[in-house]
């Protein structure tokens, strides 16, 4: 058995920064680290198990004999351990005076752990991720690997060590002090002004410290802060409420420091993404660049009261995880120590934290005291101050991001106010983007995982904070990955300027109940099309996953309380890319109710793979500021946002649109009574009617790109 990988010395790079040497013994991973401040090589030691590198070094060790004995030939290689690798891209470089060509192999069906070979032998392992690609490379072969993406002469280079200034308690305008760490490039003369990248987190600033301070290696001051009420910061966590003002006050503190050049950028993802968008709405003149990934949206759009409903497990899991202490309990968040189904089914809703974790939740109790959209919620809603946004914002998300509703909300705000310098990148990615090339049975191209993810973020900061003319501001505004076509496209805007809105009208013979019914999607509305009806019982809600994933809805579409409308078989491919929406005309016998819609692609075998879905509460049909209960039997119009997609529907498949009234893993089922949802425990079964004729032309609007 070949053991050439054992005791081979690899150079370790994180985000393009040399991080020491790695070699594998028979039993251990050895790491000769680099001193963070002086950048001097330290001695060889067993890899510290507490260091959270993304590159799975222990996994490489466990499989090293398998990697070494594999014959890296053909277009696809199946390893002895079942891993599937495909030929991806090649690199050419002069090595020791000879032109050499390497081969990159893309891992399928798992989190990407790619391999680079030269003449059939492995010279590198790498893992791309949102924070920065991590690689180990045989010394001298760096030019034959994706590490070259960090060598752009216009890109900030890793020229510095890190000077950790320690922790400061920064007072906000109300006197609450927030724990804040500062990292500077080492060796910068005292008083030298530096651009700053600010990260504000609810997950403990120490958790990703090694990741965020890498920007300091590249000439930035890095400021990492716990938001109020979390980890070492004072105060109480009231999600969304203080983030705009606290962001403003923190920027004020930064620009007053002698190491600041008064140019501040912010980075954030998920809740941290909401934090940076909120800070952007403060209008602070020294906030010059924002990178916003998979951001949580405003409470009535994406969280807490999604679509006006009361969000269930996605919100509940996060809130309970924040409520047991000042540091997040990720076992609760992951549904490990709290049963998601038990939590979602518990009643009354306002008492769920007490039942699930044995104590009250401050945020949950506060939200239950504000059942309607009022000044409290306005202060939590970043779009209320969208006219204050002036900072160039780079928005990043994907088709399987559970917070894509928030991303769309952000992009609509930026577009509405024509914020200069806005840019968006949308991939075949989950909430943790740029991870894998296959997801829930759907396969993408090898290029769905990109090697320049963090490089594009650095280019953004380099341009807007350092003034580097690297051209990122001249690139197309939108870059997006088309699923089904499996390639990247660009456009001058999002929704793509090339897209034409096409209306697909609902129709039936009055029996659209379930996939076995007679519901149709038509390009021309039918003048006389009888309405469809179904009975909605809140005690028997739809229990699909609710996640933004290509779930097969086939078994749910057998239910009679789902109205199903399906197109004819497509004679040719149909490319849909952009923001979606639907307009339905409906009546209910309840005082309030919900409408849940979904778009899917149906193959000849009958599988119905979800592409986009959303849910809205009827009482907010005239706007959040104008809640109005229903009049039994009265037809109302509902204009429903749906999260974006870029998808090529294949010839031979069909388009499907469904309407129902529940999705309990997204939102607690509406009791239909119009009573306070946090307290109501007496649900009412109602009759729902959906209209589709010339007077009430219910339809779904799809942005179609016509190709010639």
UniProtKB/TrEMBL annotation:
Gene3D superfamilies linked to this entry: alpha-amino acid ester hydrolase ( Helical cap domain), alpha/beta hydrolase, Galactose-binding domain-like
The Xaa-Pro dipeptidyl-peptidase C-terminal domain, residue ranges: 458-701
Keywords: Hydrolase
GO molecular function: dipeptidyl-peptidase activity
Listed InterPro entries: AB_hydrolase_fold, CocE/Ser_esterase, Galactose-bd-like_sf, Xaa-Pro-like_dom, Xaa-Pro_dipept_C
Pfam families: Peptidase_S15, PepX_C
UniProt-listed SUPFAM superfamilies: alpha/beta-Hydrolases (SSF53474), Galactose-binding domain-like (SSF49785)
Region (Disordered): 529-549
Protein name: Xaa-Pro dipeptidyl-peptidase C-terminal domain-containing protein
Source organism (scientific name): Paenibacillus donghaensis
């Amino acid at each position: 058995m070949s053991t050439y990988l054992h005791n081979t010395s690899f150079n370790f790079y994180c985000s393009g920064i040399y991080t020491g040497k790695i070699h594998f013994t028979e039993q251990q991973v050895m790491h000769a680290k680099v001193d963070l401040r002086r950048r001097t090589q330290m001695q060889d030691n067993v890899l510290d198990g507490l260091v959270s590198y993304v590159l799975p070094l222990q996994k490489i060790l466990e499989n090293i004999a398998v990697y070494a004995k594999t014959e890296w030939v053909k277009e696809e290689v199946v390893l002895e351990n079942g891993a599937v690798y495909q030929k991806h891209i090649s690199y050419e470089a002069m090595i020791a005076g000879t032109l050499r060509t390497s081969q990159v192999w893309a891992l399928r069906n798992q989190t990407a752990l790619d391999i680079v070979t030269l003449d059939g032998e492995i010279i590198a392992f790498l893992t791309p991720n949102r924070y920065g690609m991590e690689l180990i490379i045989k010394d001298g072969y760096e030019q034959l690997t994706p590490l070259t993406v960090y060598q752009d002469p216009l890109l900030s280079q890793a020229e510095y060590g890190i000077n950790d200034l320690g922790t400061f308690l920064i007072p906000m305008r109300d006197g609450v002090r927030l724990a804040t760490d500062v990292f500077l490039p080492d060796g910068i003369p005292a008083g030298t002004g530096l651009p700053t990248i600010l990260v504000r987190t609810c997950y403990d600033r120490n958790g990703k410290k090694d990741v965020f301070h890498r920007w300091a290696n590249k000439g930035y001051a890095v400021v990492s802060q716990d938001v109020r009420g979390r980890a070492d910061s004072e105060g109480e966590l009231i999600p969304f409420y203080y983030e705009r003002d606290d962001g403003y006050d923190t920027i004020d503190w930064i620009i007053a420091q002698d190491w600041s050049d008064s140019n501040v950028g912010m980075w954030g993802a998920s809740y941290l993404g909401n934090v940076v968008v909120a800070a952007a709405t403060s209008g602070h003149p020294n906030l010059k660049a924002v990178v916003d990934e998979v951001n949580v949206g405003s409470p009535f759009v994406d969280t807490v009261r999604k679509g006006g409903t009361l969000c269930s497990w996605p919100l509940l899991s996060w809130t309970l995880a924040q409520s047991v202490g000042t540091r997040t309990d990720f076992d609760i968040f992951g549904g490990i120590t709290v049963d998601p189904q038990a939590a979602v089914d518990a009643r009354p809703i306002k008492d769920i934290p007490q039942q699930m974790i044995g104590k009250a939740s401050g945020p949950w109790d506060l939200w239950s005291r504000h059942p309607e959209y009022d000044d409290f919620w306005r202060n939590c809603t970043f779009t209320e101050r969208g006219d204050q946004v002036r900072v160039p914002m780079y928005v990043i998300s994907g088709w399987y991001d559970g917070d894509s509703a928030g991303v769309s909300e952000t992009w609509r705000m930026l577009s509405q106010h024509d914020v200069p310098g806005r840019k968006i990148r949308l991939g075949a990615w989950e909430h943790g983007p740029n991870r894998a090339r296959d997801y829930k049975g759907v396969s993408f191209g090898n290029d769905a995982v990109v090697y320049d993810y963090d490089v594009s973020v650095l280019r953004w900061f380099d341009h807007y904070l350092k003034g580097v003319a690297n051209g990122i501001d001249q690139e197309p505004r939108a870059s997006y990955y088309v699923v089904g076509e499996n390639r990247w496209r660009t456009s001058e805007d999002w929704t793509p300027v090339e897209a034409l809105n096409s209306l697909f009208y609902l129709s039936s013979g009055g029996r659209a109940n379930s996939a076995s019914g007679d519901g149709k999607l038509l390009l021309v509305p039918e003048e006389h099309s009888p309405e469809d009806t179904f009975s909605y019982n809140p005690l028997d809600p739809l229990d699909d996953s609710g996640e933004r994933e290509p779930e097969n809805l086939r078994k749910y579409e057998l239910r009679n309380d789902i109205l199903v409308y399906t197109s004819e078989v497509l004679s040719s491919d149909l490319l849909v890319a952009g923001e979606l929406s639907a307009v339905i005309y409906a009546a209910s016998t309840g005082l309030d109710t919900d409408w849940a819609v979904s778009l899917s692609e149906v193959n000849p075998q009958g599988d119905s793979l979800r592409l986009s879905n959303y849910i809205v509460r009827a009482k907010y049909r005239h706007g959040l500021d104008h809640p109005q209960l229903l009049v039994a039997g009265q037809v109302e119009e509902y204009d429903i946002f749906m999260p974006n997609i870029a998808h090529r529907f294949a010839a031979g498949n069909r388009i499907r649109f469904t309407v129902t009234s529940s999705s309990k893993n997204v939102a607690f089922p509406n009791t239909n009574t119009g009573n306070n949802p946090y307290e109501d425990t007496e649900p009412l079964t109602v009759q729902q009617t959906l209209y589709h004729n010339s007077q009430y032309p219910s339809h779904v609007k799809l942005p179609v790109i016509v190709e010639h």
